[in-house]
Amino acid sequence: MGDWRRVLAEVEAGTERIAVTLSGLDEQAVRAPSALPGWTRGHVATHIARNADSLWNLLEWARTGVEIPQYPSLEARNADLEAGAGRGPRALAEDVRATGERFSERARSLPEEAWEATVRAMPGWSHPAWFVVYRRWQEVETHHVDLAAGYGPADWPEPYVRWALTGTLADLEALPADLRAGLRGHRLTATDTAETADLGAGAGGPEISGSGRALLGWLTGRSAGEGVAARPEGPLPVPPPWPHAPSAF
Length: 249
What we know:
Blueprint: H1 4-23, H2 27-30, H3 41-64, H4 74-84, H5 89-109, E1 118-120, E2 126-128, H6 131-146, H7 158-174, E3 187-190, E4 196-198, E5 207-210, H8 212-219, E6 228-231
Parallel strand pairs: 3-5
Antiparallel strand pairs: 1-2, 3-4, 5-6
Helix pairs in contact: 1-5, 1-6, 3-4, 3-5, 3-6, 7-8
């Protein structure tokens, strides 16, 4: 379970950073393309807010024992995105703040025994309720980058990089070989922490290395691979789609 209170504090700080970023944009900027294909910055901001609501649903499921899906349906989720994407920067920032505060209030008031309740993510995999806070952390940090408004992997807090890299490497190792895409047969190495993931490289096999931060940015699709190198020298392979279903809790 870890220290969810410490993680929630990181989530709250990250949410406020997003709200500040949005508040610094003008009407034209929030309607400009984001880093996610087909989404404007308004779509990304709306998704961040609606994700807080969706994860609140899972905490409420844990609290009451009554199943509440993360989203009513994919169609409803997409409709909410379209409905909110055209708002101005002030409304978007206020939505991100308000929904973040609501999520935090539910987390802080959740009975201790509820944290071990099992809930289910929209893709279908189940997890303990405490992992909801970590999922929110991931959403906040990755989608802040997706706003393409000056915040990148270099700005990620070090605690987030440490947690997310460890999980990403473990999840990659747990993927079946045929789902590892271009990383199949490689070893991944974080040069600053010595963390590795063996994806079938074997002794002396091809290796991809970089700082933990650089690797995380590349593996999650939030960078083009700056600071990441392949051995033997050559172009970087294409990682599998991210995020992956967690391999362990």
